[in-house]
Design goal:
The complex is a heterotetramer of chains A (373), B (344), C (143) and D (158). Chain A is 48% helix and 13% strand. Chain B has 344 residues and is mostly helical. Chain B has 2 domains: 83 residues, no CATH class; 257 residues, no CATH class. Chain B is globular and about 60 Å long. The chains are: A alpha+beta (373), B mainly alpha (344), C alpha+beta (143), D alpha/beta (158). At the A-B interface, α4, α5, α7 and α14 of A face α7, α10 and α13 of B.
Chain lengths: 373, 344, 143, 158
Amino acid sequence: MQDFLQTEEILVNMGPQHPSTHGVLRLVIRTDGEMVRETYTHIGYLHRCAEKIGENLTYKQFVPYTDRLDYLASINNNLGFCLAVENLAQIEVPERAAYLRVMGAEMNRIASHLVSYGTLGMEAGAFTPFFYGFREREQLVAIIEKMCGARLTYHYARLGGVMRDITPEIARDTREFVRTMEQRWEEYNTLLSFNEIFIKRTANVGIIPRDMAIGYGLTGPCLRGSGVEWDLRKDDPYSLYERFAFTVPYGDGRMGTVGDSWDRYWVRMVEIKESLKIITQVLDGLPEGPIMGKVPRVLKLPVGEAYMRVENPRGELGFYLVSDGGTKPYRLRIRGPSFCNLSIMNALGRECLVADVVMILGSIDVVLGEVDR
Amino acid sequence: MQSYIDALIQNIGILQQVPPLIIYTAAILLGCAVVFGYISVVAMIMIYAERKVAGHMQSRYGPMRVGPHGILQSVADSIKLLLKEDTVPDKAHRFLFKLAPLLVFAGAFVPFAVLPFSEHLVISRMNIGIFYILSLAAIEVIGVIMAGWASGSKWSLYGGMRLAAQMVSYEIPMALAVLTVVAFSGHLGLHEITHAQGKWPWEWFASPLKSPFTAVGFVVFYIAGLASTKRLPFDLPEAESELVAGFHTEYSGMRFAYFFIGEYTAMYVVCAATAVLFLGGWNGPFPGVVNMLGKTFFLLFVMIWLRWTLPRLRIDQVIFVCLKVLLPISLICVIGAALQAVLF
Amino acid sequence: MRAVANYFRDIVAAIYTITLGLGVTMKCLFSKPVTLQYPDERPEVPDGYRGIHTYEIEKCIACNLCVQICPITCITLAYEGKGKNAVIHQYDIDYTKCLFCHLCCEVCPTDCVHMGKEFDLASYTRAECVIPFAKAAAVQKQE
Amino acid sequence: MDAKEIYTRLVSQFGSERILAFRDDAAGDPFVLIRPESVRGVMQFLRSEQSLDFDFLSLITGVDYPDQLTVVYHLFSYSQTHKLVVKVELPRASPRVDTVESIWPTANWQERETFDLLGVEFVGHSNLRRILLPEDWDGHPLRKDYQQPDEYHGVSNW
């Protein structure tokens, strides 16, 4: 009888093809009934060796490649790489260009968070938020499309400045978008954020305490969700971010414990609103002037190395650039925030339910293009 | 129904020459064919309505290509499903794998024997009508568990087990909610229950004016109905973001269509039963059939509406809602309804 | 006692928030959809869109700069002569590789290559994704 | 504290035979060069010392120079808001260095990546396997002398 009633643990492959793995991530979970005993993360399915590509291209040529790291936030990536190169080459960026970069980066941040909002809703089983998020993202993408002509891989921030200036039409559209987005934001919260079922699904799930978050190198909303007030835009400003007034949201455990999935989600939602504020300030205070600094036709960097980090929608995106004085980087290392954020998955996906694994993964919000590079 | 056939035999001379058994069998088969046709049409309409409503709720159009505004989409889909290759996975238990969709479909099909469309348009006036529906709806669970196990896929197994846990627990509050009504009507037959309600909304069991206990019972029954038809927020057995497609992950073609039609038919049955039990059935200002179908389709719309609004619950929360929320509430309602029926 | 209060608070909150959520979707049900019926209705492409290139062969001076700047070398240029007198035999762009990064257009000294408004390029073979601009221009000239 | 002060603090703690050099002459960030054998001790000190408190390991990476392989650690402290770059120079033929996984859990994946792409062996790592490339891949692509194979399991790489 004892043998007959024995239960077995099942090893389940979640992914690489699974509806909720955000791309090609493979989670191997060891389950005992509905309980997940262990999660093991396999990555690398999207590996393109972007760092090796970077070593073989000139600085100017590598900028479009940064679009493809975190494809949901390409302007932020462009910005990070350009700042790293400008830092080392001592290129002066005109003020107007810096403002436009901030505007582009914040627009892209909103677009990225809207996708995150939609996908987390979808993982909780609600399809409609996904379409609402994409509806507003579409408006935003249409504006960015007018700014730089592309819809996903923007390549907007260039070495020394930005690609194009904005027209009055774009400014008008953007203000219009800010207005509608503020209304929609309330609607989003009614539909998903404060829905009792959603709160029950996310609150107290996947709790990351403060120390664990720092130790695992989490950055961005995942770190702030754990109650650490740290935002590179505020605490280590770049590209004139110090001129804009905004607050940095952080998790306070309003619906459960500090550092749970709901906190991380809520940080993203509030960041959307803060980004709207920054965009309005950029439009109000946009200085006149050129949009491109003096960049030599053949750009050679002095011997040396620089680590430049920027606040990506997903966290600290770092570019470690080693130059040997040539036209190409000697070594280029990209610190993808998603890569480090995802590394906590093995530790979090223990002793929880199968449905929780999906929610935790969604709340960490990784982009596999950046994890695998 | 039998009385109609008897009358038919008496009036048409030639039928008297045929043995009654053959006539009855023919009548049964004919009835089944009619019901089957009706189910297919209703399922098609509902699938179309679901996609259209979902589309517009999400700021998009839904199907637009096949026919004007895509009204022939469901037809095209069913043709596609019919023509699709019917695959059976290597690791599947072939017999059970093939049997499961039929069982699921049968579970959704048989309740039509007692579901009234109006006062007279009913196949059988069974005196235990609602009991019959509740007990036969349980066949579906067996089919789903069978499908989950026989597929030989881990995701399917999870879906099957989740459904088993969910359905078994939700049948209790469902039955208790029915008892609140039965306390007033004093009868399990659907006709008698309908007759216990009046023509106007305040005379229905769903109205707190008639009895607050049956009004709560109505909500409990409807929620339990959502759970037993695997609709959001209780769609764990086929939770897409977790289990890929749950128990029907491995099914394709016609077998998948059986699950699909079965699911929508079960929704129809639950809504029709709710309409009869709590919303006065065919009573109302319009002709009987219109009232009945109107109420049923309204309830179906609410199901669709809920699905495209809510997130999904987790398995422990599903069980929590059933055992710790619905069960106590329905127990209180049964006692209250019984007291009210006896005392007033 | 707190657990009991939470229990009832949860039930009330669930009913209340679900009702609010239903209101949001219901409102959307009666608003106009925002999607386009794509092949029938085409999206409006703004000026300066980075789509498939347009190439003005008569302006091209075969300076090779676009070929050099291209990060993936998807441009093939074959020519005779130099400067204004150059005869261009081949100017192919391989759209299976192209990043649509706009660098080739920015580097062009005579402004002969632009990015146009075409965006749908789907074909059954890889070879069809290579557009021979110089040949197309020659054909146009003959006509 | 700036990098120079941290360097003097480290020298006073470990002596100049373990803390080899401090360089801020080239463009970009200054860095501290330490001996490979003392990585664990120095890192543990940087992490646990109250006035330094480097709680955040931003980045581990390696650079393949012609004569040696350098492993670079980018450290940051949230409480003190100062940063430090620590470098270790290893022989190219057999680069081995102690793991810092037990000090910062994030090092787990970052060290695996460095091992995968540059072939640095982190001694004591709990799970030192390839992370981005397939397990049976040959070579370490970010080495300067890496030759790309023509095919992988019969699939052409060109």
